[in-house]
Amino acid sequence: MSLDLGLPALERAAPRLMRAEPLLTMRDISKSFGNVRALRQVDATVYPGEVMGIVGESGSGKSTLLRMMNLEDTPDGGDYTLRLPGRENENLFDLARYERRMLCARHIGIVYQNPHLGLLMRHSSSGNVAERLLIAGERSFDVLRDKAREALDASEFPLDRMDARPIELSGGMQQRVQLAKAIALEPALLLLDEPTTGLDVSVQALVLDTLKRLQRDRQITMVLVSHDLGVIRTMADRVMVMRHGEVVEQGLADQVFQDPQHPYTQQLVHAKL
Amino acid sequence: MSLATLTKDWAATSYGFLDASAKRELRRKMLKAIAVPGCQMPYASREVPMARGWGTGGLQATLTLVNPNSVIKVIDQGADDGVNAASIRRFISRVSGASETWDTLSATIVQSRHRVPEEIMREDQVLVLQVPNPEPLRGVEPNISIARQMHADADYGKLWLTLYEQIVRKGRIMQGASYPSMVNGRHVMTPSPIPRWDVPKLNMARHLTILSAGREKRLYAVPPYTRVEPLVFSDRPYLVEDHADLTCRRSGVSGFFMNELPQDGGGSVFEVSDSNLGIKAIDTAQGTPSEIGETWYRNGEFSA
């Protein structure tokens, strides 16, 4: 690579994550719901190919932040940029409703804790995946069918049940359908909002396994929100710890868990142990 | 000069039954509907001497468009002589002085339920379709407010999804009448319960089509020379009803949309659905030549 030639030796040797430009940048995000300040000047950066974990107790603002990342909600103030071709310097909160919806459908995938939020329960599982592709403009039935099958297969969903309605499926299967739907368009960013909460431990392990394999195979950038430190520890490269709408600590996952600096993080890690 | 000399004399009814303000509202809504093809415009549906759901929407549109020189044709499921068609036609001519006809070619306003005539309509004609359910999204989104937002977002994913699932479950698209169609590349409309056979007739048609739902209080339009494309997958062709090879047992015409009449033995016979087309063919065969205009379908193939 000719670009690398001028760089000092140290920078060339730096790990991939450090060299890359961030994919997601959020600056100064604030949000209030009435008197409750859900987010106070939160900054977040996510690099391509990494898994960013967000931990915090209930009400710490982590889900609100994730909703902002999915453009479901707008903040009171702040910027949000994604390094997508042609949109590098655009504040996504300024987009018109229609553009925002299209950008979300094409480039951002999300898996909710509650499958009822993410899935059309009365339609078939393959149809749920196909709907994403239909919104993006795919109009060939055979292609839709193949891509839906491919995405469901990638999320390790049993293909003989691909036309069953999600409401007839188990919780773990529902999460797999959500995941297939989220990755069908090969999104730049995959958001996971407590994807394994509410599943029993063995199913939880299977779903996490699928997520890890997907991440390894496809290098998808993920933001994973969870209150479960175990989940974050297995999945995340970097961690943000949130409390009362503020980021109290962030860093490499191992670092934060081995050597927590902030008293709240120390409490959290000890509580877990 | 007194006020009485400036005002019109008292009359028991106003021209065309509807009062002036009702007609003005409808005209404005029609202009809006024409300006945004396929977009549903709400209107205050007035009382007419007919029950809601029997064609009051179409009737109000016709009463607004009518003038003494109009020639009115009313079709009920293809036929001009149905009770509903006959009484609507008589009512319109009685309150407006317009003349009545069964012939598509000589009509200026064609009000119809469930069919588009087989003969090609011209620029100077208006087709008024009665609509029971104007909302193509109702099957997938029962909440009207959300459905309106979906129209605004051009969010028709769920509509496509139902078609996808019909193919998955049954191997073909099961939607028969009121096939959802994209108008002018923007709004999806339900073309009222006309068969799939009739939907291509609306595409780039020379005539204006007004679709009006009296019970649901919505009105939308397809202006002349506007694209109307049924929602279809690129690798699954749009199929019209399999009527191309059927022959009418009374008039002998074939290649048009037929009514099926089940028989005692379990079989069935067919009669052409556009009854006036059949009458013309019978007249011609019996020695009174009756001109059949150019038709959209020729030998069962769509060719306009």
Note the gap between the termini of chain A: 46 Å
The CATH topology of the largest domain in chain B comes to Rossmann fold
Spatial strand sequence of the major β-sheet of chain B: 1-9-8-5-4-2-3
- Low-pLDDT stretches of chain A: 1-5
Q: Provide a count of the helices of chain B.
A: 8
- Cα radius of gyration of chain B in angstroms: 20 Å
Instruction: Count the domains of chain A.
Output: 1
Remind me, CATH topology of chain A?
Rossmann fold
The structural class of chain B is alpha/beta
- Report the major sheet of chain B: 7 strands, mixed
Please identify which CATH superfamily of chain A we are dealing with: P-loop containing nucleotide triphosphate hydrolases
CATH class descriptor of chain A: Alpha Beta
Topology order of chain A in helix (H) and strand (E) letters: HHEEEHEHEHHHHEHEHEEHH
**Number of DSSP-assigned strands of chain B:** 14
What is the CA-atom radius of gyration of chain A, in angstroms?
19 Å
Q: Give the overall silhouette of chain B.
A: globular
Largest interface: A-B, 21 and 17 residues
Strand percentage of chain A, roughly? 15-25%
